Amino acid sequence: LPDEAMWMIASPLCLIVYLLTAYWTKSRLFTCICVLAAYSCATAALALVDAPELLYVLVYAVLAFVMLLLSHRLRKTSLADFTYSPLYIIAQIVSAVTFIGSFSILVSGSSIFLENPGSLWLGLITMITGTAFYILNAYWSRNELFVYASVLTFGCGVIGLLALFEALVLVYPLVFACL
Description:
This protein is mostly helical. It is built from seven helices and no strands. Helix 2 packs antiparallel against helix 3 and helix 4 runs parallel beside helix 6. It is flat and about 60 Å long. The termini are far apart.
């Protein structure tokens, strides 16, 4: 079997073992390891089908959104002691990194680090996912920081959309009009 297939076989098994261990030990460390195993499962599946690199970024952003939903759902349960913080913190970090990466690739039009980036529309969908992430965060937490992040990510999404159509020239008058 190819390495990707072995990785795909082993990752879900490891995830199950880590989930059971996290539940048994009630440890935040094993919750973090479970999250990493979930990302490993997604990465293995994408590697198995030879997906473009921007699809990896999109899947990671969607997983961050799912972790945010899961952390909010588990917040008022008996599992919250060892699940809420790791899920919430990792979701915040992954969402920010995927958004910034997608934005930089969209604005530059390419990346020197990616051999097979795929469609730039995947980057825009990732940015939309990040914007939805911060809007939901702002709604649930009622925190000004997430409101500002939502506005910022929406503005960056508009710039990314203009970059897709190679119309970044339209951004400069808009920026100066806001000043």
